[in-house]
Design brief:
The protein is 46% helix and 15% strand. The chain is an alpha/beta fold. It has a 6-stranded mixed β-sheet with strand order 1-2-10-7-8-9, with helices on both faces. Strands 5-4-3-6 form a 4-stranded parallel β-sheet, sandwiched between helices.
């Protein structure tokens, strides 16, 4: 029996059509300094310039915009550490409905404020003791809301893959594509798009050292759970890969490399000082891996998805104000 993948290149292309004119087509930046430092041509897909400041709007809007009028009238629910929260809140506002978002109590204040600013109701929980999936599902069921998970949904994954689709449309064939890995939705969508276009492309994921659940899972050949990661890369603080995303990534991801929090800080400083862009910790992990020489056998033409730039000035100064 032939296995049918949950998401295909055609799904990603359909998502691109669905979000066209609503989501931004974000810029691709180059830096001779970066190329010289890492010994490769690097193409940075800057999702920090996406609406809500991160790639998450792509998947959220692709999914929410396909809900029935009856379901939109009831509203949408989501759970998120920040960027998906903002994405669903903005998607709901764009579609004329309401959103209720479950967020960790220790979410950076800038992300809480932004989510509330888009008109969402926020419900908080303790990420170190509570099961966000169970709490989120119960919240949605109690209120009759459509739940849009941050990565465990084919339309969310397809939407996230549009960033890679756009990148390769602009740059042409790449030898490798590097993305951050948290729950795995960005990687699953990116790998679906990239390998659908060029089967030989090398898909490389980057995780923080304390949040290596996907690396461990790929090595074990099954989903492995770890303690809630304590890392500055809060968007990658996943305990276990998603079941759906792992089923895709297990087939399509070639390598996972790890970076330290100090390497992430260095990358954020480099992005600010040399590239003139603001990148949040999770968005900086691929750049950190390149600058720290973590990627083994780096090829000559490399795409990188800078996944987001949602960080407040105080937090940025706290993390990057003095060199380590």
């Amino acid at each position: 029996m032939t296995h049918t993948p949950p998401v295909t290149l055609d799904d990603v292309r359909d998502a691109a059509a669905q979000i066209k004119g609503v989501a931004h087509r974000t810029p691709v930046l180059r830096s001779r300094t970066l190329d010289a430092l890492v010994g490769a041509q690097v193409f940075l897909k800057c999702e920090n310039f996406q609406r809500i400041g991160a790639f998450k709007f792509r998947g959220a809007y692709n999914t929410a915009s396909r809900l029935s009028p009856e379901q939109l009238a009831k509203g949408i629910a989501a759970y998120s550490s920040g960027n998906h929260a903002q994405a669903v809140a903005l998607a709901a506002r764009e579609l004329g409905t309401t959103a209720v978002i479950l967020m960790p109590e220790d979410t950076p204040q800038s992300k809480l404020d932004a989510t509330a600013g888009y008109g969402a109701e926020i419900v908080t929980y303790d990420r170190y003791t509570g099961d966000r999936t169970a709490i989120g599902e119960a919240l949605a069921a109690d209120r009759g809301l459509a739940l849009i998970p941050p990565y465990e949904h084919p339309q969310v994954i397809a939407g996230q893959g549009t960033a890679a689709l756009e990148l390769i449309e602009e740059t042409g064939e790449l030898d490798a594509l590097i993305t951050p890995v948290g729950g795995g939705g960005l990687m699953a969508g990116s790998a679906t798009a990239a390998k659908g276009l060029h089967s030989g492309i090398r898909m490389i994921g980057i995780e923080p050292e304390s949040g290596d659940d996907t690396k461990r899972s790929l090595e074990a050949g099954r989903r492995v759970s770890i303690p809630v990661p304590r890392t500055i890369a809060d968007g990658q603080a996943a305990e276990i890969p998603g079941e759906l995303t792992f089923s895709v990534n297990q087939r399509l991801v070639d390598d996972i490399f790890l970076v330290t929090d100090d390497e992430i800080r260095d990358a954020m400083r480099f992005a600010f000082e040399r590239l003139k862009i603001i990148v949040e910790p999770s968005g900086a992990t691929p750049l950190a891996a390149l600058l720290a020489g973590r990627v083994e056998r780096l090829p000559s033409r490399v795409g990188v998805i800078i996944s987001g730039g949602n960080i407040g000035v105080r937090r940025f100064a706290e993390l990057c104000g003095s060199a380590s």
